[in-house]
Amino acid sequence: MAKITFITQDNISVVVEGQSGSLMALAVENGIKGIDGDCGGVCSCATCHVHVQADQMQLAGEASEIEKDMLELDDNVSEFSRLCCQIEISDALDGIVLTVAN
Amino acid sequence: MEDKAINTTRCIIIGASHAGVNCAFALRKAGWDGDITLFDADPTLPYHRPPLSKAYLTSDDGIEKNLLKSADSYEKENITLNLGLTVSAIDKSNHTITTSDGKVHSYNKLVIATGARPFIPPIAGLEQAHQLYPLRSAADVNHIRSALKQSPSKRVVIIGGGYIGLETAASMRKLGASVTVLEREQRILARVTAPVMSDFFSLLHAQHGVEILTSKNVARITTSPDYNMVICDDGSEYPADIIVVGVGIRVNTELAQAAQLDINNGIVVDDQARSSDPDIYAIGDCSYHFNPHYDRFIRLESVQNAVDQAKVAAASICGEAPIYDSLPWFWSDQYEVKLQMVGLSTGYNNIVLRKELSDDGLTEHKFSLWYFKDETLLAVDAVNNAKAYVVATKLLKSGTTVDQVKLADNNQELNPANLV
């Protein structure tokens, strides 16, 4: 079980718990604003963009090549950007804080 | 008084798939505080359709892992879902709809998001065939999954070599089936891609052991107790334990037509997704709409169009003046290949094929196909090449003229600045 915090663009923090599946699915399940996941989680739409806290990038891991390219669709991409459909939930993610990019 | 009036307004949405559901949530986001009621004949909580022929088909997952929104989300946003209920009529002068249980529901605004249904061709013997399915709903795929599990010899014939047929072929192959695809045209994907792409996917499927046969017009199907025989008009025969039909769709315009809305290949809408009746909108696969990028009316079968039009309709219903001007995009996943498409290639007269260099030289599986009409870039198909897809999206959006010579030079890194 991992506790995940999403901070939305209107600055609301939502703490949710997840066990498995992708962070995008967890966000959609919990109605997190700004995470649409239109393509259903196959890295095809870039509508689940989050910024990871700088000191937690290790937890989230690095984006794959395809993911990095897809992130370029969004103007507010940064070195801390991830598409959260590509992040699998595990206990290791406990405590991670993600700022929703849109 | 006015507040009270707003509180009693109701938006009814017919169809609870990508377009309808996104419209409901977008309405709340845009400030609609009246009732929102969705109707759909499918009894299942609304789900993502693209995975049905891909990851969902090869998994044992229930559909709850593929939901568009959680059950709680509808409750939280006060959106009423009426599932398993068909809408039988629209009465636009009285602002009501009638459902199959005989009830009449009144609306202030109506959104038609009825999508499309699989086209089942008039093939002799088709209705008697065992284990023959289209592939559009979760129920279809649940039937296909269980038919495959129960079949000892797992011989699958897929009628139609479009995206649905090919994705299904890849998924069924992964599940251990022996798969034959019968395509009526001279090449697969004939309607939607250039021959280069058809060749690539033909080879890809052949490498995975799928038999792809073109110029095969299915004439009839005979059925014995154990299996079917699919017979083409050239006399060739293919035994099939399971048959999947993927030969296209028919747009669900009947309700709109009966209500005398303008129809032309779909429900005709303006740039705010309004039909010929100002209180009725039409969105998603069933809408025939103007696309300013291509300066013509089009109908699209895609998640992008469903979601984007849903947002435009919601904003318009809430009194804003949005304009639908999205660039179309699509994707298809087969085996380990990711195909991403942006734009519409119809009318192209020139193609640039760009193969990317990898560390160990040219790679056959990473390339992009750029469709031009003279100097104008129309569309790009990118294979395992998200960068090409992203660069193409930016170029198409900005309307930049692309230098085709530079584009073809794969020693130049692919970025917009290098292509002008």
From TrEMBL, chain A:
One of its GO terms (molecular function) is 2 iron, 2 sulfur cluster binding. This is 2Fe-2S ferredoxin-type domain-containing protein. It comes from the Bacteria. It comes from Paraglaciecola hydrolytica. Keywords: 2Fe-2S, Iron, Iron-sulfur, Metal-binding, Ubiquinone. GO terms for biological process: P450-containing electron transport chain. Its cofactor is [2Fe-2S] cluster. PROSITE patterns: 2FE2S_FER_2. Residues 2-102 form the 2Fe-2S ferredoxin-type domain. Belongs to the adrenodoxin/putidaredoxin family. PANTHER family: FERREDOXIN-2, MITOCHONDRIAL (PTHR23426:SF65), FERREDOXIN/ADRENODOXIN (PTHR23426).
TrEMBL record, chain B:
Its cofactor is FAD. The keyword Transmembrane helix does not apply. GO terms for cellular component: cytoplasm. Keywords: FAD, Flavoprotein, Oxidoreductase. Residues 10-310 form the FAD/NAD(P)-binding domain. Gene3D superfamilies: 3.30.390.30, FAD/NAD(P)-binding domain (3.50.50.60). Pfam families: Pyr_redox_2, Reductase_C. GO terms for molecular function: oxidoreductase activity, acting on NAD(P)H. Transmembrane segments: none annotated. Residues 329-415 form the Reductase C-terminal domain. PANTHER family: APOPTOSIS-INDUCING FACTOR 1, RIESKE DOMAIN-CONTAINING PROTEIN-RELATED. This is Pyridine nucleotide-disulfide oxidoreductase.
